Amino acid sequence: MSEKSLNLNLRVWRQKNADAPGKFVTYKLDNISPDSSFLEMLDLLNEQLIDSGEEPVAFDHDCREGICGSCSLTINGIPHGKGRMMTTCQLHMRSFENGETITIEPFRAQPFPVIRDLVVNREPFDKIMQAGGFIDQRIGSAQDANALPISKETADKAMDAAACIGCGACVAACPNASAMLFTGAKMSQLNLLPQGQPERYKRAINMVDAMDANGFGNCTNIGECEAACPKGISLDFIAMMNRDYAVAKVKRFFSGAA
Amino acid sequence: MTSLGKKYIMAVSGLILVGFVIGHMAGNLQMFLHPDWINAYAYKLQNLPYGLLWIVRLVLLAAVVAHIVTAMLLVIENRRARPQGYSVDKPIQATFASRTMRYSGVILLAFIVFHILHFTTQHVHPEFRDLYRPLEGVGTIHGAYDLLEATGKNHVHDVYSMVAIGFSAQYWYISLFYVIAMGLLFLHLSHGISSMFQSVGLRNHTWRIRLDRAALVIAIALFVGFASIPVAGLLGILPYQDMVQGVHHMHPPTTP
Amino acid sequence: MNLDPKIPDGPLEKKWTTAKANYKLVNPANRRKYSVIVVGSGLAGGGAAAALGEQGYNVKCFCFQDSPRRAHSIAAQGGINAAKNYQNDGDSVYRLFYDTIKGGDYRSREGNVYRLAEVSTSIIDQCVAQGVPFAREYGGMLDNRSFGGAQVSRTFYARGQTGQQLLLGVYQSLSRQIGLGQVKMYNRHEMLDVVLVNGVAKGIITRNMVNGKIERWAADAVVIASGGYSTVFFLSTNAAGTNVSAAWRAHKRGAGFANPCFTQIHPTCIPQEGEHQSKLTLMSESLRNDGRVWAPKKKEDCGKNPKDIPEEDRDYFLERKYPSFGNLAPRDISSRAAKEVCDEGRGVGPVVAGERRGVYLDFRDAIQRLGRKTIEARYGNLFDMYENITGENAYERPMRIYPAPHYTMGGLWVDYNLMTSITGLFAAGEANFSDHGANRLGASALMQGLADGFFVLPYTLGNYLGSIPPGEAGKIDINDPAFADAENAVKESVGKLVSIKGKTSPRSLHTALGKIMWNKVGMARSKESLTSAIDEIRALRERFWNDVLIPGGGDELNIELERAGRVADHLEFAELLCFDALDRNESCGGHFRVEHQTEDGEAVRHDDQYANVSVWEFTGVGNKPKKHVEPLNFENIKLAVRSYK
Question: Which of A156, B55, B186, C445 is the most exposed place for a label (fewest CB within 10 A)?
């Protein structure tokens, strides 16, 4: 519980639609409780805009507890803002100063075009998943769940990878707009588990190809993705992907397949 | 070429070049020994059998070209992937080295070109081509005598003096450039060496820390090793400084 | 309204087998001629779309989020129940069935619940095979925990994000079918109407939320899996986007709405900090295993630092009222007790709208007894989350908690086959009413969503499609006048919303509705509160349609238009919820009528009159809805009074 309130200058990216040019507009917003979340602060900005007859700032959000991956925003140059291991919706205003100017931009990447204001289209992530981010298991025909023991270490590691919420902060943070942390995490979750072995190498090739086809940049091992990831997904999963893909290519070369 | 294909090329060509640089430095450090050492070594390299010298040169050239072409592709594609940048762009944890690979790389390329013109083809100082010195029998480990005997010559190119003069105080700006370039090499490799392992998937969290440290140690060693020579040349403090022939001492090679 | 539940004859454990054996089938070669629309992409909707796509039907799946992976199933934390008995502690399908019926305060169908318990085991098998990384023991076997006061350990979990992992499993199956072209996915599309051709559901009307296009979609069957309606209270633990619209529009087209008053309030949420707040965050109920709930005895202590309140001035009210269950009393009972304390003016925390809404959940004794390390190991992530949101360190200062709307048991009425009272329209997951009665047990929501999506609909929908001759399959014409009428009605209502240009934002109207609902229709309801709530809702609805302000137009991405449409539906639906609560003259599960309680404040059920399902028929906005009743027959379970004293 904090008593004093904040007066802020918000420099917000406004863009009418995908084709329109965008620009920054600065708004003054006063009397913000430090206990508000960042998105609640934006709610208040929108109430203020609506009251004055202006169009509110569009932004994606849903669960507001850091799990759905809807919220995005690059706040003062950092995807999801300066709080480590948290999403924008978990960021609270007490971490800002009174009188501060906050620059709010959309996640920027060629594959994530702006739809409006701060809303971007992250469908390329779905496309990567559709290319191979699954285990081909017919519904209703599975064996007993305990018939296949999986060591706790493997299960935990797969879980570490599976914690990805698909928010796209990795792409937004990467100077190259690369999606390798996302792709690496999604691929490794399945490639680590025994259930994922039959399609392991096919998955590696298909997901990487889909990632490339969607126009993401290349990874240069800088590690900004890991630092920006609200779930702390490790670069290790990119290394695993690199290895699996290399093995897959070698296997494919010697098998004579195209 | 796929995104990962480019990674592998960067890693493999980088590995070749790092390997070369380490060997090159080890050879160069002979500057701190009797002139025979480096002169015999250079002579031996120049006269490797089966055209090995050119094979090695071609492999290195291929690695450099692959490294550069791929890097250019990466830069172009990565720019295309982020056509609009951020108005506020704040790195979270990325090292300066990792974010400036393309710049350190470009300057290093310029350095390599100059370095070849300087000491390999000697276009910068054509007079260096006339530096010769007989082998006194100190640096015999390279087996240069056997080679030399077969040709009937007793003089070899005086690499020792060439380097010492090339880095001497009158060319202070060249020494400075070398030291700066080696600083950039340090920067480039402090990210690059560990990064290669990541690129081919031979790294995890535990090994990342170890490899990052190893990369730092190697990069520092390379910097110190390489930079020590122009610095020593500049200050005129090579252990056998008095054996440096002045350009005015040059004399043509004696032919049998 | 035909309310035949179509529960198969025969003994409980044979019903589902019998049903499956008698269902019509569609020849695999003919399946591609049939098309199905699924609204919603959570465990139920996404699961159904994936399963039906895999069977070979043409599926179109719609969600309002930017990706099917964001459906609100993702937010469930605790776990999923299944009668696997892996712990060898006496669990069985029958016991899970029994616990669910009893937990639901005897207001659900035996047949449905038994089926749910029966397929629960297949759910775990399926999810594990798909790569859901459930927690494991060192020996490699799946780990379980006991949840929500259950006497067996039957809850499977994946850290604190079981919902996300299960949803991702479903999303992965769905992605596979999308990649194969069996399912067409439409993100950022909001369903705004169901289209009935000759009384049979044959399609939907959607609004493309990116460009505002109103579109017609035809199919041989429509599934609504659009989740619950907790956001009628504005502040809830639900995602900001969850809404009643799809279910409500189906209801307006004739689908019966069952038991809307059965709403669940979760006791351990982080209290409201101020008027600006947009949501309440749930913390795992497991906190109550070690925390002691208390409030100051004296009103004047409420603003004090809790450290300065001496032991004798603290009221450990749950331990006092329910000595045997104490701090672990069930959700509804604990929630109500906390509200009573705050209503007496003994709440703690910031003053919001003139009232302190919160009670302490104190770990002081547990830290003294077990050490801070143990508490950190057990609840560290929750303490961190609490500190992130409130800025308070719960190791030093007791946590503040308050109940919040969390889940809605009511929903579209469905028969055993999950078909609503509209032929061809199905409802699954939280959107239907079928399995949880008046109160849902912890870790059962994920189970029901997956059961409906993966294991029930693929059979029952096939049975329905099997009744359509292959020659007629997929022959629905979107130029049929029924589609044109529905589309025009949607366009008209969108046009009307954007043209009002009043002075009040949709959000503030939603907040106002939430206040009415929370204060008068929340944890404790009375005839007076409900009657006055209906009046206030009507007045607010009037105000909405005269004074709402939506900047921008309908042909663009317009977040306020989206919100306004949902608020408009909530404003109509809220009235139905009140009517149902007013009509149900008893207290059961999440529905507590102050007139029906014992002297000690315990809920009093009236099984003689209300052991049934109230199904409401829409009669026009502002008119009293028409009530139908589906009696519940308990052939296997004897009704008993829940007691937690």
Answer: B55
- Taking the C-alpha atoms of residue C570 and residue C245, their distance in angstroms, rounded to an integer, is 7
For B240, the token pair is: 């056998």
User: What are the domain boundaries of chain B?
Assistant: 3-80+97-249
- For residues A177 and A216, the answer to whether their CB atoms sit within 8 Å is yes
What is the domain-level CATH number for residue A46? Answer: 3.10.20.30
Catalytic residue status for C541 = no
Enter the DSSP assignment of A92: B
pLDDT on residue C419: 98
Whether B83 and A110 lie within 8 Å, measured CB to CB: yes
CB contact under 8 A, A62 and C560: no
C221 in Cβ contact with C33 (< 8 Å): no
Q: Which of A110, A180, A221 is opposite residue B80, by nearest beta carbon?
A: A110
Is C574 within 8 Å of C513 (Cβ atoms)?
Answer: yes
pLDDT at B248: 53
CATH topology for the B3-80+97-249 domain: 3 helical TM bundles of succinate and fumarate reductases (1.20.1300)
Which residue does chain A place closest to B99, by CA atoms?
A: A222
**Other Cβ atoms closer than 10 A to B210:** 12
Query: What are φ and ψ of residue C340, in 5° steps?
Result: -60, -45
Within 8 A by CB and 6+ apart from C95, the residues are: C83, C152
Q: Which of A11, A218, A239 sits opposite B3 (nearest CB)?
A: A218
Q: How many CB atoms lie within 10 A of CB B58?
A: 11
Determine contact, residues B214/B193, Cβ cutoff 8 Å: yes
Into how many domains does chain A fold? 2
Pairing of strands C425-427, C221-224: parallel
Residue A3: its pLDDT value, please?
61
Nearest CA in chain A to C68: A126
The domain containing residue A91 runs over which residues?
6-116
Low-confidence ranges of chain B (pLDDT < 50): 252-256
Quote the longest CA-to-CA distance of chain C: 79
Measure in Å the smallest separation between the Cα of A251 and chain C Cα atoms: 24
List the strands of the sheet with C183-186, edge to edge.
C183-186, C58-62, C35-39, C221-224, C425-427
Helices (H), A36-133: 38-51, 123-132
pLDDT value, residue C438:
95
CA distance A255 to chain C (A): 25
Query: Helix, strand, coil proportions of chain C in percent (round to 5)?
Result: 40, 15, 40
CATH topology for the C268-404 domain = Flavocytochrome C3; Chain A, domain 1 (3.90.700)
Q: Which of A168, A166, A170 is nearest to A68 (CA)?
A: A166
